[in-house]
TrEMBL record:
Annotated InterPro entries: Allantoinase, Allantoinase_bact, Amidohydro-rel, DHOase/Allantoinase_Hydrolase, Dihydroorotase_CS, Metal-dep_hydrolase_composite, Metal_Hydrolase
Cofactor binding remark: Binds 2 Zn(2+) ions per subunit.
UniProt name for this protein: Allantoinase
Cofactor(s) recorded in Swiss-Prot or TrEMBL: Zn(2+)
Domain Amidohydrolase-related: 52-428
Sites where the protein binds Zn(2+) 1: H60, H62, K147, D312
Catalytic activity: (S)-allantoin + H2O = allantoate + H(+)
Described function: Catalyzes the reversible cyclization of carbamoyl aspartate to dihydroorotate.
A single MF term (Gene Ontology): zinc ion binding
Amino acid sequence: MALDLLIRGGTLVTPHGPLQADLGVEDGQIVSLALDVFAPARTEIDATGLHVFPGVVDAHVHLNEPGRTHWEGFDTGTQALAAGGATSLLDMPLNSSPPLLNRAAFDAKRAAGETHSRLDFGLWGGLTPLNLSELDDLAACGVIGFKAFMSHSGLDEFPAADDATLFDGLRAARRLGLVVATHAESDGFTRTLSQVARAHGRLGVRDYLDSRPPVTEAEAVGRAILFAEETGAALHLVHLSTARSVALAAEARARGVDVTAETCPHYLHWTAEDVERVGALLKCAPPIRDAGTREALWAALKAGRIDTVGSDHSPAPHELKTGDDFFAIWGGISGAQSTLNVLLDGGYRARGLPLELIAAVSALNPARRFRLGGKGQLEVGLDADFALVDLNETFQLTELFDRHQGNPYRGQTFQGRVQATYLRGQRVFAQTPTGAQFSDTVRGQLLTPGIHPTGEA
Ligand SMILES: NC(=O)NC(NC(N)=O)C(=O)[O-]
Ligand SMILES: [Zn+2]
Ligand SMILES: [Zn+2]
């Protein structure tokens, strides 16, 4: 029986390390992993000199469709993700409008994704004081889990979860067998520090950074962990910005709390000094920290204390990223295309992170944590989702495919370049001598929580 696709001569990045092997694909699944696979194939790709990574599973993106496609949208957002080696994404319940708080909003976003997404996609439901009664119905829809903000989300339509709402949401999630992801910053603490700064006319970048010190994250992380411990729920702490917050999660995990920790490429690549230099394009919450904190975060990642790296791609139109009051500017960074670039250049090249660790935090761990059945690993029987990467190519990132030009990574130089990305054995992106090529026919499928063949995270 002929294979549909044969990737010959590459170095596969497996959980046990790099492996010289060919990869055979039939009907969108990996059917063979072996040296010198001798089988006819309708398409054969010479991957000599390239590494084959499991397709990135980006568990934290804001594609903002429906309702705010002028901010991003599935089409352009998944173009950027595919160009960065991603094959699956989990879309956050905001800044789409309406936010994903009930079945009607789920159905609308699912329809938009099935029409415009170039990659497989899962959908986070929201957990807010407005929709506690909708959680069971959202679980029945197939949400990946529930996302709660412990501080202001930036949009009044998605209110922060007060402690009682978060606690009740965790209890419901435990009963429903789903994960709760939290944006863990203390609402009261950050709100007061911001109000005082603005009342005194302190509206600059450093004033904003100083209004969200690490302790305002650590306090909320501790509270979310306490609630998870009390309820027995599965907690996922998104975009942790310091090794101290990561340590709180690791200590809790060591005593049996079901908690996982995410960080983002911008906390690993940039520093607070960069934020002062670049400005609004690097505004996010929690804020990017100083160089020492960045190094400690890399060390925590290298030590295996961070489970996942998600982009937290949260773009906005140019007009929301300008103004003299830094507090009023939209918080969110465009980074969907450069997660692997940051991990390979800052991690593998500069800090000796093993390739299998990079594959774990960018693909296998999120796939297992969120129970995305056939995703996250180069293994027979799993989906043929992978990226061909030239680890030796140093390049300047100039071609960015997300909707807006406001991308802080434009012009950055990285070693390690994605040459092609395949989703279920279909090429969705390729870097060619005449420029980038995207498939116009491959469309993503909805991902819902299932059973991962390699077990739970
Ligand atoms: N509404 C958002 O997109 N917020 C995001 N913005 C950031 N991180 O600055 C987030 O994940 O909190
Ligand atoms: Zn957040
Ligand atoms: Zn986010």
